[in-house]
Write a structure and sequence with these properties.
Strand 15 and strand 16 form a beta hairpin. Helix 5 packs across helix 12, helix 9 crosses helix 11 and helix 12 packs across helix 13. The strands form five sheets. The chain has a six-stranded mixed beta sheet, with helices on both faces. It contains 13 helices and 19 strands. Among the domains are: 35 residues, no CATH class; 107 residues, Nucleotidyltransferase, domain 5; 69 residues, Actin, Chain A, domain 4 (Alpha-Beta Complex), CATH 3.90.640. The protein is 39% helix and 26% strand. By secondary structure, it is of the alpha/beta class.
């Protein structure tokens, strides 16, 4: 009775704990905050008192800090790389959107990559509880992405979702409110950016930053050959230390990112090969849905469709699929209880970590 009474006054929260960004939604307001997963600390003072900045402010400091300040990305390749910094970051961001109350504490849903270990799950749960939650639900990213893409995950029908984030690409098959299969690959947005960095350095002796590589990917990147190539200027430093600028076209970038895209397709094929026969027909009928920032790469749906010989569709606003799914879970108590109770997916024995 007390818990129900508290719930009437609390605005429940959902958080997508991503490699590059943390997104926070609330039951009443929907998408409320999206911040880079970066924390700036005073040197050798990795605790709450040593925090200089969190999120966007910390992101602006990356690569520009004096010797007495260090910036940390607590999440790496979809998993927690620094437990202490992750806990501090989570607490700061939750407190930013939710004023602590001794009476009305929120329930908090946390969206995590499926391959996060039990130790890491417990660490996240403890951090969220310390931030003021009265109850914590942990939900897998592919499930939240499927819900956000408009899939009715409670039906006895198989649907495949490929969620391509910054640190991981996760392939999940949903049915009856749970993940029947799930496999993750460390080849995702960051690896595609690195392929662009390596290509420019090896072919043109041009050194650029990670943010510049991501910008090139989104501006002219393509998974298939375009009828009219796109062109964009690329600025950086050459091997002799001179600042230089050159024109780059989408066809060259397509060739540069072909290998990581092939590896993502390979992960999807691995899941397809072990799908139960009764669900395989559903996937043929329903196709594959792309979510996450990787879904924004031009022609990726066509590329995967050609390789896998299956229909592939990009979700509406794929970058927001997970946050939309989390918002639906916040607003639909029945859906939350069914998904949370059944989200015990079978993880394939071989995780691809290329």
């Amino acid at each position: 009775m007390y818990s129900k009474l508290v719930g009437l006054f609390a605005n429940d929260i959902a958080m997508d704990l991503g490699t590059s960004n943390i997104v926070i939604c609330t039951k009443k307001d929907g998408l409320l905050l999206s911040e880079p997963a970066v924390v700036a600390f005073k040197k050798n003072n990795i605790d709450r008192k040593g925090v200089v900045a969190v999120g966007k402010e910390a992101q602006l400091m990356v690569g520009k800090t004096p010797k007495n300040i260090t910036t940390i990305r607590p999440m790496r390749d979809g998993v927690i790389a620094d437990f202490k910094a992750t806990e501090i970051m989570i607490r700061f961001l939750i407190e930013k959107v939710y004023e602590k109350s001794r009476f009305a504490k929120p329930r908090i849903i946390v969206c995590l990559p499926q391959e996060v270990t039990q130790v890491e799950r417990n660490a996240v749960k403890d951090a969220v509880l310390k931030a003021g939650a009265r109850e914590v639900f942990l939900v897998a990213e592919p499930m939240a992405a499927a819900i956000g893409a408009g899939i009715d995950v409670l039906r006895p029908t198989g649907h495949m979702v490929v969620d391509i984030g910054a640190g991981t690409s996760e392939v999940g098959v949903t049915s009856l409110g749970g993940l029947v299969l799930c496999q993750a690959s460390r080849v995702a947005g960051n690896r595609i950016d690195k392929a662009i960095l390596d290509f420019l350095r090896q072919e043109y002796n041009l050194h650029i930053g990670v943010r510049a590589a991501e910008s090139i990917k989104m501006e002219i990147g393509s998974a298939v050959k375009l009828d009219e190539p796109l062109v964009a200027p690329v600025k950086g430093r050459d091997n002799f230390g001179f600042l230089t600028k050159l024109e780059m076209d989408s066809e060259k970038i397509r060739k540069a990112i072909k290998e990581p895209l092939n590896q993502i397709a390979f992960t999807v094929r691995n899941v397809i090969e072990v799908i139960p026969a009764d669900l395989a027909g559903d996937i043929v009928d329903n196709g594959i849905v792309l979510t996450g920032g990787g879904g924004l790469i031009r022609g990726l749906d066509k590329f995967l469709s050609d390789v896998l010989e299956l229909p592939v569709f990009v979700a509406d606003e794929p970058l927001l699929a997970v946050s939309r799914g989390l918002t639906k879970l916040l607003q639909d108590e029945k859906l939350l209880q069914q998904v949370y109770g059944r989200d015990k997916s079978h993880i394939l024995p071989k995780h691809i970590k290329l």
